[in-house]
Amino acid sequence: MYAQVIDDTNGQTLVSAGTDDKQLRDAVKYGGNRGAAEVVGKALAERAIAAGVSKVCFDRRAFQFHGRVAALAEAARKAGLSF
Fold first, then answer.
1. Residue 56: per-residue pLDDT
2. DSSP secondary structure letter of residue 82
3. pTM score, whole prediction
4. Are 17 and 2 in contact (CB under 8 A)?
5. Considering just the CA atoms, what is the radius of gyration of the chain in Å?
6. How many separate domains does the chain show?
């Protein structure tokens, strides 16, 4: 699982986090569950805030807002990212 914060105006990825990141591999045993989504959401929020981004628009594409998608969003919100 991965997520990115993208600046659509300039077409640049500002920060990203995923279960395959070196910093997150030890915290995630399996990358396809809610626990992994929470770890990725928290890491994404922390990296975004460190980069000076505190407010984002959440684009879930065709995925329904439940399960892993909702867990990622809630973890990012708890870590301080505003949607």
1. 96
2. B
3. 0.92
4. yes
5. 12
6. 1
